[in-house]
Amino acid sequence: MSEAEQQVIFETWLGQYKAMIFKIVRAYALNPMDRxxxxxxIVIQVWRSISSFRNESSPSTWIxxxxxxTAIRWIKRERRHAELNESHEAVRQVLMENPVSLDDxxxxxxxxxxxxxxxxxxxxxxxxxxxxxxxxxxxxxxTESNVGVKINRIKKYLVSRSKTFEYGV
Amino acid sequence: xxxxEMKKIWDSQNQVVLYAIDEKALHNRIGVKRRQALHxxxxxxxxxxxxxxxxxxxxxxxxxxxxxxxxxxxxxxALLFGSAFYVLVNRINRVKGDNRFDRSMRGDLxxxxxxxxxxxxISQIMRWNFIPxxxxxxxxxxxxxxxxWIAFGMLAFFMLTHYLSRWxxxxxxxxxxxxEELQKRLNQEDF
Lengths: 169, 191
Prior knowledge:
The structure holds 2 protein chains of 2 kinds.
Chain A: H1 3-28, H2 32-49, H3 59-76, E1 95-97, H4 104-115, H5 118-128, H6 133-140, H7 144-166
Helix pairs in contact in A: 1-2, 1-3, 1-5, 2-3, 3-5, 3-6, 5-7, 6-7
Chain B: H1 3-12, E1 19-21, H2 23-35, H3 40-65, H4 71-97, H5 105-143, H6 148-187
């Protein structure tokens, strides 16, 4: 695949799926600097993955997998000093937050998702984005029944947590 | 709040543009990362192969030119060639095995864990390799009729290198442990 072809695919994917990546970034990183860092990591991994994409799954499933996988490992990764050597231009912020105020309930939901462990966060995002059990099992590499059991547990947890939001407990 | 309501709240963000992307900065960032494409494992392997092989060859050539029969240095060269060969064979096996993981998050984690296990093994072997190398270099110096203090200095240098290399080894071990935790969490069956 030529670099020009890779660039075209990348731009198409980014245009179509950036909203999905933004949600993942927001669920895994709390502050704007971290969000920018994670976003960059994800898009770079997406760029690199283009040459190995074989149309065995849809681009959205592929990008979910790459993005979530990058996010769960980004949390664990130690910040590398090597990156400080990059040129000033290269470390310029890529992601700019639009000054829109989020619905309180959405902010609460993100906060609750953030308290889950890395894997449960993946499942919650996929579940809220309406993916089927089969698609989730494909992305995560676990059985559909295991996905189902995890979803039930997460749903129960979120519903129980919502009481603290509704009643300010 | 019921889950269906949470779902509606979640979907509401699809109507709002939360972020804008600075395309130029993104392009530059990708360019920088592409130049850094040589992964740390690749660099470590290639360095080990080149340094071990190169130093081994240098020792053989200089020993041969001097027409001296310094057994310790020949043994050292053999050990270095052996190390370079070992890393080369492992590298070939690692690259061959890169495609055997399935295309899912579990497959990615299994792959990352396999690379981390490999890094732990190589760093452990190379760490302990410093001991016979240090001993053979010291013996070579003594055999060559140099001062005993130079020999001691060299031995101390290798011992220090062995001691310091545990940091690198521990870094890989920590990384591997973190991946194992993730894998365990993903595979865990909830009941």
